[in-house]
Design brief:
Order of helices and strands: EEEEHHHEHEHHHHH
CATH topology: Nucleotidyltransferase, domain 5
Largest sheet: 6 strands, mixed
Number of strands: 6
Distance between the termini: 47 Å
Number of helices: 9
Structural class: alpha/beta
């Protein structure tokens, strides 16, 4: 797992790159050491084509809204710099990666998303963790108790933020043990933390003997166990 992760989502004019459908919104949420930084990346994009009515029903983004927005080539360099060498986390990655590569393929310097970052698909992860169950983003929100009440329509930045919450819940939830909120939460730090609370070979602990009244109370409790069960496990030790 990389230290820097980017949860990404897109909205598009339709479903098929073969019909030259285009990206109209990119939303990215940055995590460093599994913590949101607020350094997000978000653009609406002019696709230079009409949006399918079915797509508008899903995300609510209109042709009129996009008329004055930048085009993908205008933000491509900033986008590639933003995701450079990060682990990019996407739900149903083939869809978004396919559209991003479609856009990148139109540029003079043809490249692919995978040449700039590592891609992790949370849908693939979820299907392995919950085989035979529904694993849409909404279903995962319900399963992991992630609040998606604002998701009346799809939106790239909104969905990227929800995906970040779902991903963190899927991959460990609270793993800092609440001891130091300023410390990194990766597995190496967890191992160091556990090691610090493990007894060393040369450590000695004080032995505190039970008091007489405590021994008497213990004997009375064993007697009640023998009366009810016929014997007590303590007698066999």
């Amino acid at each position: 797992m990389k230290q820097r992760q980017i949860c990404l989502d897109t909205e598009t004019t339709g479903l098929e790159t073969s019909l030259d459908h285009r990206i109209i919104e990119i939303g990215c949420v940055e995590l460093i050491n599994r913590r949101p930084t607020g350094n997000n990346f978000h653009y609406y994009l002019n696709p230079d084509r009409e949006i399918d009515a079915g797509a508008i029903a899903v995300h609510g983004i209109t042709n009129e809204h996009l008329a004055t927005q930048p085009r993908f080539p205008d933000v491509a360099e900033a986008f590639l710099e933003y995701i450079k060498d990060a682990e990019v986390i996407i739900h149903n990655a083939p869809f978004d990666v396919g559209f991003l590569n479609h856009e990148l393929g139109k540029l003079a310097n043809v490249t692919t998303l995978e040449q700039h970052c590592e891609v992790t698909d949370t849908l693939v992860m979820a299907r392995k963790m919950h085989p035979g169950q529904r694993n849409s983003l909404d279903a995962l929100c319900k399963r992991y108790d992630v609040n998606n009440s604002n998701r009346t329509l799809h939106g790239a930045l909104l969905d990227a933020g929800i995906l970040a919450d779902v991903y963190l819940a899927m991959t460990g939830g609270q793993i800092t043990l609440g001891l130091d909120p300023n410390k990194s939460t990766d597995k190496a730090d967890q191992a160091n933390l556990i090691s610090s609370y493990t007894r060393k070979p040369d450590e000695k602990f004080a032995v505190i003997a039970a008091k007489a009244d405590e021994l008497n109370a213990h004997d009375e409790w064993l007697a009640r166990l023998r009366d009810s069960a016929g014997s007590a496990v303590w007698d066999k030790l």
